[in-house]
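Reopening this ticket.

The earlier resolution said the output was attached, but the attachment link was broken on my side. Pasting everything inline this time so it's all in one place.
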Amino acid sequence: MIRRLQALAFLGWRFFLHFVKLLSPFHKRPGLEQYRENYTSEGLTTVSATERERFTGFEKCIACDLCLHAWFTEGGRRYDPRAATPRDLALCLSRSMPDYPSARAIVDGWTGMEGFEKICPRGVDLPGIVELMRRHIAAYDEATGK
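Inline output:
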């Protein structure tokens, strides 16, 4: 019982100090600047609110491979199991922010992506994914000096 009272007293004290710190005129909230200082060197880029909203559309990919048929037939490409496909990029974005050097290998040279969202039964915006990845790769390059 005494330990519980001690824990509650400590929690109350920390709660009080938290609000005093927030009300202090000397308290500086680091926010985005601190994030960039800490994580830009690691290659993490910031995601805007509109990009976060678009992620819900990117996460719809169910790996049905209908985009692959169009990718290989209309693009005149041959199947190579080592080469990345549109589906790979959509699935990559549905989990977490990818490794940008690897993503560069996927999106470099992609052209003719128009119409892919019509092929997808879930309406995944593949041209939008490629455009988003190119923008984040450019931000990564700028931040890391590559």
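Reporter confirms the inline version is readable. The first helix runs from residue 2 to 23. The radius of gyration is 23 Å.
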